[in-house]
Amino acid sequence: MERSTMAVALGRGTARPGEPVNVPLVLSSTYRAGGPVGYAREDNAVWSAFEEVVGALEGGHAVVFPSGLAAVRALLELLPVDARVVMPSGAYSGTRRLVADLMARGRLSPSSSFVDVRDTDGVLRDASGAALLFVESPTNPMMDVADVGALCAGARDMDVMCAVDNTFATPLVQRPLELGADVVVHSATKLLSGHSDVVLGVLVARSPDTAAELRRLREEHGAVPGPVEAFLALRGLRTLAVRVERASSTAAVLAARCAEHPYVERVRYPGFGSMLSLVVRGDAVAADRVCERVRLITPATSLGGVETLIERRAKYAGDAEAGVPPSLLRVSVGLEDVEDLWGDLRDALDEAAPAR
Ligand SMILES: *Cc1c(COP(=O)(O)O)cnc(C)c1O
After folding, report:
1. What is the dihedral of CA 320, 322, 327, 333, to 10 degrees?
2. pTM of the entire structure?
3. Using the 8-state DSSP alphabet, how is residue 108 labeled?
4. CB 119, CB 139: distance < 8 Å
5. Rounded to 10 degrees, what is the CA torsion of 78, 83, 89, 91?
6. Residue 193: CB within 6 Å of ligand 1?
7. 26-37 pLDDT per residue, tens
8. Whose Cα sits closest to atom 7 in ligand 1?
C-alpha cells in the first residue's frame, strides 16, 4: 500500500456492515467494568486510530501525546537520571529550552551538548558515550539538513539511542526508522494535522517494547491528549499526501523566485518540503516591514497548516541566541494558488525594500 493510501484507508475500526466509516469521537472518562479500557487516561479509540495511521506511515509503533513537546518530554523520561543528550544547536527552540531546563535541574547531564547537525563526524564524536542522540532535520528555522542515515548508523554502532524530529519533512518525504532511527518525533500540531486547529504530538518507536514503555509513562505521568484533538488530527491526516504534494511544489516555485528578488539576500530551502526561510537584505526592521506588508499571507507563528504563514524568527531570544539571522523570515507554505502567493510576497518585498 502506498503511503497516500495508508493515510486514507487505515485507522477506521472494524469493517462490519452498519459500523461508522470514521472511528466515532469517544467522550467518556470511564467505561463499564470488565472491558479492555477502564478509565480514559489508559486509552481512547480515537488515539488508537490516529496511532495506527501514523505508525504505518513511519513504519513503527506510534504513541500520541498532548503536544510535540510533551512527546519529547516523554522520550527524555526513557533516559536514566544524569543521562547525556546530544542535540542540534539549531533544533526547535522549545526542544532546546526543555533540554537546557532538565540539564539545569540535574535531570539530564550538565555535559549534554548542542552540535551543528550538518557536521556528521563532529556530531558522532560528541555522541560517543551519550544516552541519546536527538536529531532534527531539516532544522527549525534554519533548514539545515543532517545526514540522517549516517547519524543513525553511527549512533547504532556506539549503542546510542537515536531519535529524529521529523516534523518538517513528514513520513512522505523522510522515514527515519528506515534510516536506522529508534524513535521518530512529531509535532502533530503542524503538517500531520495540517489545519492550525490542534496541538498534539506523537512518538513512533521501532520497538514495540519501547512503545509499551511510552504508553505506560503516558498513563502514569498523566499527560494525555484530548480525544477531540486526536479526532481533528486524524481528520487532517487523511489529506496529508495531497497537502504535502501541493505545498511542496508551491514552496519550490516560491524559493526559486525569491532567490531572484533583489531584496532577498539568501533563500534557505532544502529542495523538498513545504518550509523555506528567506534572509532579507538589511536588518530586523527591514524584515519586519515585509511581514507588515503581506496581505494574503498571515504573519503568525507555527507552521504546516493550509494557510501560508510568515514569521521573523530572531524576535525570539531562543532563535537569536542560536544564530538565526535577524532578518530571516520563515515561511510555512500552504495551499493557496502559487501565483496569488507569489504576487503577495513579491509586492511585500517590493514595498518593503528601501527606495533605490
Ligand atoms: C512546533 C515544533 C515542536 C513542538 O511541538 P508542539 O506541538 O508545539 O509542542 C517540536 N519540533 C518542531 C520541529 C516543531 O516545529
Report:
1. -110
2. 0.97
3. B
4. no
5. 10
6. no
7. 999 999 999 999
8. 68
